[in-house]
Specification:
The protein has 104 residues and is mostly helical. The chain has a single domain (11-102), classed as Orthogonal Bundle (434 Repressor (Amino-terminal Domain)), CATH 1.10.260.40. The protein is built from six helices and no strands. The protein has helices at 11-23, 27-34, 38-45, 53-63, 67-85, 97-102. Helix 1 crosses helix 3 (38-45). The protein starts with 10 loop residues before the first helix and ends with a helix.
Length: 104
């Protein structure tokens, strides 16, 4: 697994810096265009909410991107946080490789 050294950018920050600012769109205007509440979009933009598959579809249509672009941003952000916020996952004991390949 390739180790990411810096924390990935939250997708909300990308919406804010790469779309809202340059396009001079307000959160209210974008939320209306996306068909979601201002509160929902505001949570994402303020990095307190996550991109769902439904939101990824909406954003991809609004900004001519792909849903996978948005979901990958969110996945990378979430995975980095999970890896760095808790070390409990390190207590999991790997199964011996010969057992894994014998059942495949």
């Amino acid at each position: 697994m390739k180790k990411m050294l810096r924390k990935p950018t939250h997708p909300g920050k990308i919406i804010k810096e790469d779309y809202l600012g340059p396009l001079s769109i307000t959160i209210t205007e974008l939320s209306s265009s996306l068909g979601v509440s201002r509160k929902t979009l505001s949570k994402i933009i303020n990095e307190r909410g996550a991109i769902t598959p439904d939101m990824a579809l909406r954003l991809s249509r609004a900004f001519d991107t792909t849903p996978m672009f948005w979901l990958t941003l969110q996945k990378n952000y979430d995975l980095w946080n999970a890896e760095h916020e808790s070390k409990e996952w390190l207590n999991v004991k790997p199964f011996p490789q010969q057992l894994l390949h014998a059942n495949g």
